[in-house]
Structure to design on (329 residues):
């Protein structure tokens, strides 16, 4: 029997986890757990590229781990750990840094976006973010990286630096493939369907958070921006209703034609209520499990410790190999 493929992905403990994170990333991680050898990481070292309150960051790191388990990440099937627990991540990032050209790093659009949003804190770590992300992935000799489509460029850079290193110094890293599931890959803001739903946007009705109460979810969906047209069809040129329909599509598992047949003549009000119902139903058990887990932080910390212990040897092996190949004692 051939060994299962290795999957690695990460999520930052900044802001609150929202429906975009769930549909674009976490739901896929949960759905693929049985088929792969899974490693999931709360990337707290990436989070400090943006200013964080230290106490809050510690709490959010644990809370996010708790939420991932509540969403269905099963510690028996997946290793879940905190990035800062394994020092090989920043150590390998440095070696990679010395093998990434400024020109390639300067092309990264996430850096440009985040610099615009945080003009007073354009730090070197923010620029260097993709090297740390490449280290996260390459340390574990990963086959697949399931992410939302916004991360595609970072994975391309990861592949390029890995191939260059292997070519220049000898075989060291497995070349990972991005795994971007089309449905849910890019959930847009409810208040502005032209920008992706994000943890940092400030609009009150921008995102549905996984811990939102049912009445809050209903209000946000009712207020979601649509257009003056009233037919309900999948049309990318009508981004507001298209975004809502895509969310409905992933959560209901129905195909586009049957969704259009069901709602095309019913008007936005009926469709929005149906969407709110399906979102609320999906989040209810997650919220209940989250509350149970939150009351047992010791258990969460134990899972995280076990996760780190399980993956540490792989990280150590890869790092030592890279160090040796490049001539570091
Ligand atoms: P982050 O919130 O930046 O830590 O992202 C964690 C994961 O969620 C990554 O795989 C992202 O690609 C994914 N993600 C973030 N925002 C969205 C969105 N609006 N739609 C789909 N996926 C997203
Ligand atoms: N950059 C990713 C994001 O913002 C998070 C991340 C960090 C990640 N390291 C990773 C994702 C490694 C996949 C693999 O969403």
């Amino acid at each position: 029997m051939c060994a299962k493929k290795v999957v690695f992905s990460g999520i930052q403990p900044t802001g609150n986890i929202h429906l975009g994170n769930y549909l674009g990333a976490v739901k896929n991680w949960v759905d693929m757990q049985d088929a792969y050898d899974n490693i999931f990481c709360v990337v707290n070292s990436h989070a400090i590229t943006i200013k964080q309150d230290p106490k809050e960051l510690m709490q959010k790191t644990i809370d996010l781990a708790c939420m991932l388990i509540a969403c269905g990440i099963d510690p028996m099937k997946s290793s879940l750990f905190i990035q800062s627990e394994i020092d090989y991540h920043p150590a390998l990032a440095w070696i990679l840094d010395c093998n990434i050209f400024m020109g390639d790093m300067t092309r990264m659009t996430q850096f440009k976006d985040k610099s615009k949003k945080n003009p007073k804190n354009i730090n070197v770590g923010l620029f260097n973010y993709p090297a740390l992300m490449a280290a996260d992935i390459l340390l574990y000799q990963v086959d697949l990286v399931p992410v939302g489509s916004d991360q595609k460029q970072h994975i391309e850079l990861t592949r390029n630096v890995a191939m260059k290193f292997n070519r220049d110094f000898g075989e060291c890293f497995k070349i990972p493939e991005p795994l971007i599931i089309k449905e849910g890959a890019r959930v847009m803001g409810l208040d502005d369907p032209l920008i992706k739903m994000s943890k940092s946007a400030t609009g009150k009705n921008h995102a549905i958070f996984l811990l939102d109460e049912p009445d809050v979810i209903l209000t946000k969906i009712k207020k979601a921006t649509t257009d003056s047209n009233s037919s309900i069809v999948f049309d990318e040129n009508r981004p507001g209703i298209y975004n809502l329909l895509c969310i409905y599509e992933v959560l209901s598992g129905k195909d586009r034609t049957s969704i259009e047949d069901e709602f095309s003549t019913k008007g936005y009000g009926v469709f929005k209520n149906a969407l709110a119902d399906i979102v609320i139903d999906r989040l209810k058990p997650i919220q209940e499990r989250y509350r149970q887990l939150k009351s047992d932080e010791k258990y969460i910390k134990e899972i995280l410790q076990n996760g780190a212990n399980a993956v540490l040897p792989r990280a150590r092996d890869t790092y030592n190999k890279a160090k040796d190949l490049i001539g570091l004692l």
User: Anything to note?
Assistant: The pocket of adenosine monophosphate (ligand 1) is lined by residues 11-12, 20-21, 24-25, 147-148, 150-151, 185-187, 196-199 (CB under 6 Å). The CA atoms of residues 8 and 39 lie 5 Å apart. The first strand starts at residue 6 and ends at 11.
